[in-house]
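DM from R.C. (forwarded with permission)

"hey, sorry to bug you on a friday — could you get me a structure for this? deadline for the figure draft is monday and I only need the backbone to look sensible"
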Amino acid sequence: MKSTRSPRCDGVEPCSERNAKVASAHTPQSCRRGLAASLAAVLACVSCAASPGAEKPVSAYAARAPSLAAPASTSREPLRSVEPATPPRWSRARAQQWHEARGWLVGVNYLPSTAINQLEMWQQATFDPVVIDRELGWAESLGFNSLRVFLHDLAWKQDEAGFYARLDEFLSIAQKHHLGVMLVIFDGVWNPLPKPGEQPAPRPHVHNSGWVQSPGAEILGSAARHDELEPYVKGTVGPFKDDARVDAWDVFNEPDNPNTDSYASAEVKDKAALAARLIDKTFRWAREAGASQPLTAAPWLVDSSNDAELSASDRAMLEGSDIISFHNYAPPEQMRVRIENLRRYGRPVICSEYMARPLGSTFDPLLGYLKEQGGGAYSWGFVSGKSQTIYPWSSWKGAADAAPEVWFHDIFGADGKPYDPEEVAYIRRITGKKPNASAATASTRIRLPAPQSEVPLEALREGPASPAAP
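My reply, with the result:
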């Protein structure tokens, strides 16, 4: 039965009178008992003075002096249970164990050629498992063993059950082709004003003209609304938290990208600072959802050589990641510098975006170098389609009127023909995939020893290769 007495005092005499009696009764012989009683009385009196006549629950005292404020008694309300702590970031040892067990991850950032963006990929009306199955077969033929794939909070919000079903189906198709998947939860690149439903047609000859951010500016720009995304994160990670088909979770892609040449006028003010807050929360929510796979987020511009110069968002990404990932579309020497700078964190390093041919970021020699160094490798772009990433980023400033001679990204045309057969042959030599090999051959992931000593990049560059069957 709940006591009718106030936890502030005994309900018989005022606090001041009771405290006087306690003080007069104190002797050295009664020190131990008197000290405890005095402390309890003082706490009660402070509470009484703060809110005369107000009833305070026992739990209000528990945080200050639980042993004094909440003595064992069946007549009082039980103390509130303590919330379980968020699981911590993985230790370096656990991250290395994961890397040794998982092996070298090599693959692409994947979007079906029939989708202009993440929403068109995942919405029921345009989800295309037939095309996905065909195109992932081409990924398997190159010896790839993993994909990096973007999700979207609006696709989940409009059709939660259907979203889970389609994601499960996609993972099953990938598994059929011996591909794991790194799932990207949020994205800060391109259009900050996403809308569900029918997506726009591509703007002719413009790179990624329809890609959308997740969350949109309306939510990212208001810190008070960030918690609205918690059900999406936990509801997405939770059902797949122990799924072996999921290689890792990328919590936020390029969260502070200002999109200067495309959507700068519609961008969120103080985007980097707001994104840093959401990064921290997303790491926490994913861990609270019980993710058994590693979490990561990739700095995309800085060289990461000086901790003092990191932005708030870069710091949040690096300090929250179980495994370190990064983006680099620069020539080989800059790739080397980036990897060397990131090694100081003592964790596996994955390049989750690279390969822009006109910028000097090419498969040969970068893929071979990343393999030698034990670093995972996900190139951007796979099949030329509605994303139009064969065109350069600069196409936003002035669209071309024809396909470029040198493709910016992508490996295959929509018909399955490789852009460059010699490039495809090189990829297969690095992954160890024989042309037209059986699917069983591709199921074995490449296991690497610890990162090797430096190898000159030019020594890894191959000359023209003999033609190979696509």
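R.C.: lifesaver. The radius of gyration is 29 Å.
me: no worries. The mean pLDDT is 81.
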